[in-house]
Amino acid sequence: MTGHPALAIDIGGTKLAAAIVHPDGRIAAHDRTATPSPPPERPKGGGESSPGGVGGRPPTMNRPPERPEGAEAIWSALVALVDKVFADAGAPSLAGVGVGCGGPMTWPAAEVSPINIPAWRGFPLRERLRARYPGLPVRVHNDAVCVAIGEHWRGAGQGHDNVLGMVVSTGVGGGLILGGHLIDGGTGNAGHIGHVIVDPDGPPCGCGGRGCLEAVARGPGLAAWAREQGWRGDEDDPTGADLAEDARAGHPVAAAAMRRAGRALGLAIASATHLCDLDVVTVGGGVSQAGDLLFTPLTETFNTHARMDFAQRVRIVPTALGQTSGLVGAAALVFRASRYWGPSDKQ
Ligand code: ADP
Ligand code: ZN
């Protein structure tokens, strides 16, 4: 590996982010822009009702019509962002391109269909980037997996071999590192902690199942449950952040909603820890900003259910890299391929 930096890209339904990242994980230049989107076809009642970000509904459900112009508009915005970051860093020679993108996608070919980017359905992201960066390795993985990699390589999981990295935001996603290596599973989908079942009789999930962690603990799910119980019933669009604020102020329904999410996370983490004999679980994403409102019931529930000694040694911690962990993890697909990029298809 040369000392050249990598181009790192993070693609989500809300924002596109890009960075030039040094081989040691330091960020040389970094920028972001809103993901161009045609107005979504929201169900009546609106609010935070569409699943996505990480995890969520597979592309076969409620597939929106193809929007080729929309697809190219997003690609153009991405190219403009990437070119700006590249120029900001002084137009360096690159070691490769690493990308975290919202799922699902075919993998490792990375024809992507991010739930929150309806204009991209089967968009040939890896091929497009290869054409733009001929001769360079171009590697694309799930965005939550890249967050887990970033936290393992340079964040809160550093120095540990067995790490579950979680993102609790509009969706709930994750990535699994065991024995110091990313676990891809048969189709690149290992680590989908958001669809571990925490309540068989729980709410329907965007994946088509019921009672998944994501259905209970994603930000919009929390807010929806609280509204059903009468919280801010008269307002249009209360968010997870509003809920956390009210819970802190002592609103009983808001506090119960946060406890419910924390408990669901604690159950899922207890199961994952028993299954995988984890050292560290990192928890990030917008909902994790609720802090002790989430982490206290999470830890209590974990302690109730994770009774074996080997499970009790796990440390459950907030992410350390904040907004940049996905970019740092995407760069690690280039710089630390032996740990984080399993496919034989290295270019
Ligand atoms: P994305 O899903 O686009 O990656 P975020 O990671 O910011 O975005 O997550 C957004 C979700 O987190 C929303 O549902 C929002 O209501 C929720 N959220 C943001 N801040 C907080 C907070 N302080 N407490 C609880 N939920 C929050
Ligand atoms: Zn599910």
UniProtKB/TrEMBL annotation:
Region (Disordered): 22-68
Gly residues bias spans: 46-56
Family per record: Belongs to the ROK (NagC/XylR) family.
Upper taxonomic lineage: Bacteria, Bacillati, Actinomycetota, Actinomycetes, Streptosporangiales
Pfam families: ROK
Organism, as annotated: Actinomadura vinacea
Name used for this protein in its record: ROK family protein
Ranges of biased composition (kind: Basic and acidic residues): 23-33
PANTHER family (alphabetical): N-ACETYLMANNOSAMINE KINASE, ROK (REPRESSOR, ORF, KINASE) FAMILY
